[in-house]
Amino acid sequence: MSRGLDSSEGKWFTVLQGRGATAAAINADGRIAVSGCSDGSVWAWDVDAQRRLCALAGPSKVHAVALSADGSLALAACDDGGVRAWDLRGERCLHVLEGHTGSVRSVALSADGLTGCSGGSDRTVHVWDLASGQCLHVLGGHERDVEFVGMSADAGRVVSAMRTDWVHRGSILRVWDVATASCERAIALPDASSLAISADGCVAVTGADWDARYSPWTPGRVSVWELATGRRVHQRDTIGEIVAGAADASRAVSVCMPDGKFLLHEWHPDETMTLYAHEITAGVSAEVNLHADIESVVISADGRVVVLVFNSPRDWPAAKCFTGAVAMWRLARSTESNL
Fold first, then answer.
1. Does residue 339 lie within any of the structural domains?
2. CATH for 263
3. Rounded to whole angstroms, how far apart are CA atoms 83 and 62?
């Protein structure tokens, strides 16, 4: 573990080395985080104490993880087609949820951890009763792999998205009513590489990461969508490696690695947006390679904790950076930026 502290800003940085982390999630108050790994394991972390709580072994690569609001239950989307529900306090697997016929790409949880959903390469969304381990609904209609899913706090609404164009990042977002297992609306998105839904199920935030290999003329973008109408109510462009929405979908973070900054976006009921800038490099240990590829980024609901998963860049030897490492920042509120 590498750690640095900037006491004047009141924020810290830590890198926790796992076994090839591929995805991360954080609970509502930002105190517990989980990471899924390429070897199938799921690791739980105490964010404040900056230590590992447990490591739970699984048989298949984890593509995505979700965490209940209280940090006691984790879902893992696995390459073998299973969804594994983990009791983090008891350090045991509660259920292996079976039904997908291909790799599971994304998972989400209700606030109480009693209901979950998953999307996969079989182009379906499954809704799960996590108390019994039974599948409640299979939602079809996507024409390609379901890359992202989200669930409202009360489990009444699910959103799912597939990519229609890998070069220009087009996507289709579907909004589902869980009680009737029906699609309420399909929204064409010009770009989406991440997805989050608000607790009340009324708003979704999408992020589009900038990648010069595919679209050098297209910036990263944070967009906020009104699900009842399909209207985009906010949009902001940003040059960054990846963007992600917070659990309450009222804020998002974009990571601008070449500039060494987090850009924290917050939007308001009057449809205005505030942008705050945070330096990433304050207190960062010199051996950490901040230009490594970013596999995953999540932000806590209060916008104060950011968790990144780093992967090896193609042009750096593995010894130069933390491959599959989990990095965490607690952000101090900064002044509004003109960026």
1. no
2. 2.130.10.10
3. 9
DSSP letter assigned to residue 269:
T
* Distance, first Cα to last Cα, the chain: 32
pLDDT value of residue 296: 74
pLDDT of the residue at 273: 60
Residue 213 is predicted with a pLDDT of: 46
**How far apart are alpha carbons 104 and 97 in whole angstroms?**
11
- For the chain, the C-alpha Rg in angstroms (whole number) is 18
Which residues form the domain of 220? Answer: 2-330
Neighbour-count burial for 214-250, b at 16+ CB within 10 Å, e otherwise = eeeebbbbbbbbebeeeeeebebebebbbbbbbbbbb
pLDDT tens-digit series, residues 112-123: 999 999 999 999
Instruction: Give the angle subtended at the CA of 107 by the CAs of 41 and 134, to the nearest 5°.
Output: 95
The identity of residue 80, as a single letter, is D
DSSP three-state, residue 280:
coil
Whole-model pTM?
0.83
3-state secondary structure 168-235: CCEEEEEEEECCCCEEEEEEEECCCCEEEECCCCCEEEEEECCCCCCCCCCCEEEEEEECCCCEEEEE
- Residue 116's beta-bridge partner residues? 109, 128
- Tokens 């164009």 sit at which residue? 165
